[in-house]
Structures are given as C-alpha cells and as structure tokens.
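#struct-pred
JK: can someone run the complex with adenosine monophosphate? inputs below
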Amino acid sequence: MTTCVFCGIAKKEIPSSAVFEDLEVMAFKDIQPSAPVHYLVIPKEHIQSIAHLEGNHKEVISKLIFTAKELAIKFGLKGYKLVFNVGKEGGQVIDHLHLHLLGGWNNKKDIDILPHPSLDK
Ligand code: AMP
Ligand code: ZN
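RT: done, structure tokens with the ligand placed:
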C-alpha cells in the first residue's frame, strides 16, 4: 500500500469519484469541495509539486491543463479557475502534484447537471 493518497487513488487502492482517466492522468471530485464544482486533475506518476517539475514533464503538465479544459466543457462550466498550490507555504497539503478545477458559482446549468455534495442542499 502506497503512502501517498493520490498515488493510492491512481492505483485504485483508495476509492475516488473519477470523472476521467487515461494512461497518464486522472481526474476526480475533490472530497472537500471549496466551490460548487471542484475537481482535481493529477498525473498518475508521483511528482511532488510544480516546484519539482523536470524537463521530461512538459507533456504531462500540458495534459493536466487540457484535461481540465475538456472537463469544463463536458460539465458546461462557462468560467472557472485553475489552481496549482505549490509547497506548504503556497497552501499545498497533498504532496502529489494536482490541478484544482473550480467553478459553478453563477451557473445555473452547472447546478442542474452536476451531482455534487455541496449542491445537494
Ligand atoms: P491542496 O491544498 O492543493 O494540497 O489540495 C488538496 C485537496 O485534496 C484538498 O482540496 C482536499 O479536499 C483534497 N483531497 C484530499 N484527500 C482527498 C481524497 N481522498 N479524495 C479527493 N480529494 C481529496
Ligand atoms: Zn503520489
């Protein structure tokens, strides 16, 4: 069993609400959403943070952003925020690189189509 929670999710040792997966990346719902719509997009490879990126990571980092863009289209988000927290001082709690996709504040359509814990009330 891996000690990194997002490696655990990538290896299906830890359950998640996945919305996208291919060989290199995975996207799933944030367990404690800070927006009406909140997904995390991760590389399956363990990379600690943006500060730990190396030259051979250019493709995977680009893939994270394209995946977030495709998810935003899929879920009808008109506008959204993409956030990388970097390091403890930057608010990073999980030391496995992840891109936050946040949205759904003013978009009635998001609320109609997305089953999401924060929207159940
Ligand atoms: P950060 O502060 O950038 O490291 O964000 C980590 C995010 O991971 C937080 O928004 C947490 O709610 C989320 N999180 C932690 N554990 C899990 C999990 N098992 N499944 C889904 N999201 C998680
Ligand atoms: Zn990891």
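RT: quick notes.
The chain has one domain: 5-91.
The beta strands are 18-21, 25-29, 37-43, 80-83, 99-103.
JK: thanks, will look after standup
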